[in-house]
Amino acid sequence: MTKQSLTMDDLLGEVQQKQFAVGEVVQATILSVAKHEIWLDLGVNGVGMVPRREIGYGQKLEVGEQVVASVVDPEVEDGQALLSLRKAAKDRGWDEVKALFDKGETLEITPYDANRGGLLVELEGVRGFLPVSQLSAEHYPRVGSSDKDEILQRLNSLTNQVLKVRILDADRKANKLIFSEKEAVREDMQARFEKLKIGDSVKGVVTGVVDFGAFINVDGIEGLIHISEISWERVENPADYVKVGDQVEAKIIAIDKDRLSLSMKQTQDDPWAKEAEGFKKGDSVEGTVTRITPFGAFIQLSPAVEALVHVSELGEGQGADPEKLFKLNEKKNFKILDIDRDNRKISLSLQ
């Protein structure tokens, strides 16, 4: 049959033979870009529609642009093909992702969403995940474990920010792509650790306040100031002394594998030691009852010095009842039995 003798039925037959198959990758031209979908010109195969969910995150599209799409359904209710740009990009993207994973390079990614477990990321059309546990000390949401809303709020603040990461796992078969910010900064962190030593004074920013202390970001390295190292005073609630965003100065008291143990109070003179110089063993002193316990009572001798009168020193042996002998805030006279300056303790007896 010559070209000139082709009938309309023959031509339609040729077109029918070109019907798409599910998963087929096709070249197309964008006809229109709407809020919820884009329409593509498929040539002799008519038009196709790409729903918004099948468009890659952050992909900018313009009318007249040539794109590559994957066929989801060759023909839906209205006769047009249902297509996906994201799947086509994903199929091509896995090859790029695997190459980047094999090289172990540091990449820049921009999370597009977050949940309580971490950040959602798309790389080369492949969707992946950056778990909370793989965030650097700078970005890790250090909040109380029960405060899930604040964790999510902290993670949401990282969306649309550029983060440096490495690919931790890339499994095409399992459709698993995991990123790590910690791995991207590990070598740099190690170099910074080597420059630090116990006794150094450092400056940092408070990144989290919890019941047992405060977390500090020291030039990208995580540090912890335990509640006992916040102040020379007795600290009941760390939040009374520091808040997220505060800049603090602290001394390094221990260096662990990937964290510093810090002390704020050791950057200041110990007021207890200075005021305790005014007391000596055998002195008769007046003090104010601040706490009463089954084993004795705590007595304030000066603004920074608190001493203990043990139940055995109350004149009635071990059977004495501190609750009956003392009232809070009352003043009484005592004798200093011992001063342990190394452990900041003074023992009293009731006169």
Kindly, what is the distance between the CA atoms of the first and last residues, rounded to a whole number of angstroms? Answer: 126 Å
Q: Strand sequence of the main sheet, in spatial order?
A: 1-2-3-5-4
Order of helices and strands: HEEEEEHEEEEHEEHEEEEEHEEEHEE
Derived from helix and strand composition plus strand pairing, the structural class reads alpha+beta
Give the overall pLDDT as a whole number. Answer: 87
How many beta-strand segments? 21
Based on Cα principal axes, name the global outline: elongated
**Known CATH architecture of the largest domain:** Beta Barrel
What is the count of structural domains? 4
Portion in beta strands = 35-45%
- In the predicted model, the low-confidence regions spanning at least 5 consecutive residues are 11-17
Our Rg estimate from Cα atoms comes to 35 Å
Task: Tell me the CATH superfamily of the largest domain.
Answer: Nucleic acid-binding proteins
CATH class of the largest domain, please? Mainly Beta
Helix content: 10-25%
Can you describe what's shown?
This protein is of the alpha+beta class and 351 residues long. The protein folds into four domains: 25-88, Nucleic acid-binding proteins (OB fold (Dihydrolipoamide Acetyltransferase, E2P), Beta Barrel), CATH 2.40.50.140; 104-185, Nucleic acid-binding proteins (OB fold (Dihydrolipoamide Acetyltransferase, E2P)), CATH 2.40.50.140; 197-267, OB fold (Dihydrolipoamide Acetyltransferase, E2P); 271-350, Beta Barrel (OB fold (Dihydrolipoamide Acetyltransferase, E2P)), CATH 2.40.50.140. It is 18% helix and 38% strand. It is built from six helices and 21 strands. It has helices at 8-17, 85-103, 148-156, 181-194, 271-276, 322-325, and strands at 25-33, 37-41, 47-51, 66-73, 81-84, 107-109, 113-115, 118-123, 126-131, 163-171, 176-180, 201-210, 213-218, 221-226, 247-255, 259-263, 284-293, 296-300, 306-310, 331-340, 345-350. It has a five-stranded mixed barrel with strand order 1-2-3-5-4. Strand 8 and strand 9 (126-131) form a beta hairpin. The longest helix has 19 residues, at 85-103. The termini are far apart. Residues 11-17 have low confidence and may be disordered.
